[in-house]
Amino acid sequence: MNASAKALIIDDEPQLRRLLRIVLESKGYEVYEAETGNLGLGEAAFRRPDVILLDLGLPDMDGIDVLRKLREWTETPVLILSVRDQERTKVEALESGADDYVTKPFSTPELIARLAVIQRRGKTSDDPLLKLGQLTIDLAKREVSAGMEILKLTPIEYDLLRMLAKNPGRVLTRQQILSQIWGPNAREHGDYLRVYVSYLRKKITNGGVEIRNEPGIGYRLLVPESP
User: Fold this and answer.
1) What are the residues whose beta carbons fall under 8 Å from the beta carbon of 150, sequence distance 6 or more?
2) What's phi and psi for 173, nearest 5 deg?
3) How far apart are the C-alpha atoms of 114 and 86, rounded to whole Å?
4) 138-165 burial string, b = 16+ CB within 10 Å, else e?
5) What is the pLDDT of residue 78?
6) pLDDT 10s digits, 148-189
7) Three-class SS of residue 149?
8) Any idea where the domains of the chain sit in the sequence?
9) Which CATH code, of 3.90.550.10, 3.40.50.2300, 3.40.109.10, 3.40.190.10, is assigned to 6-124?
10) Quick one: pLDDT at residue 162?
């Protein structure tokens, strides 16, 4: 981890903030803290962190509202940390701009892995040539290859893969995917999405990546760690 990477913790539990600080500093992060949503917004604007860890149960405002205010001006990766594990809450957070969601209590390795993934996503999402596992996606040519093999994808399969690949490791809700690929009023295409995901999985089987289903929420593209 780059020693200059800055992490902002927005959480009202002092013990958890202390634990997170120890863990993050051991990985080379420069750590800042805020115990309320308003303080967190101020710190985010002043510190310009590389990643934000955000609790939903804050004393002055709901974490979802903090997230929405952040997304008005920054695309800094945000990892939600919360005891709320309802699907509806996770979907709301993800659709409001969260990059991932970890339910408390969580393991330290899981936390660090999720942070690494969402930070990599921020660095790769605008690249004209995406390389994930054995897959190469040429955004200009709309062409996908696995090794030396050019994959034959339908336009919808390509759009689905591109969306997942530009957000590696990030959970995309069903509605986010449906809206981008089929339009804003495409809730009735949920069955189509499952079918296309199934087709796409078969076609990228040699690509070294995995489309993971998050039950009740959506999908994410898992990419192996570089050796």
Assistant:
1) 143, 144
2) -70, 160
3) 19
4) eeeeeebebeeeebebeebbbbbbbbbb
5) 95
6) 899 999 999 999 999 999 888 889 999 899 888 887 676 666
7) strand
8) 6-124, 129-222
9) 3.40.50.2300
10) 94
Q: For residues 26 and 71, give the distance between their C-alpha atoms in angstroms, rounded to a whole number.
A: 29
Give the C-alpha separation, 115 to 94, whole Å. 15
Closest CA to 60 of 75, 80, 38: 38
**Under-70 pLDDT residues of the chain:** 1-3, 121-127, 184, 186-189, 225-227
DSSP class of residue 61?
Answer: S
Residue where the block lists tokens 């209590």: 105
Task: Decide whether 6-124 matches 129-222 in CATH topology.
Answer: no
Cα-based angle 163, 166, 169 (whole degrees, multiple of 5): 100
pLDDT at 1: 47
Distance from chain centroid for Cα 199:
23
* 129-222 is a CATH 1.10.238.10 domain: no
For 182-206, the pLDDT digits (tens) are 876 766 667 889 999 999 999 999 8
- Compute CA distances 127 → 71, 118, 138, whole Å: 22, 15, 9
- The predicted pLDDT at position 119 comes to 82
- Distance of alpha carbon 59 from alpha carbon 119, whole angstroms: 28
- DSSP one-letter code for 188: G
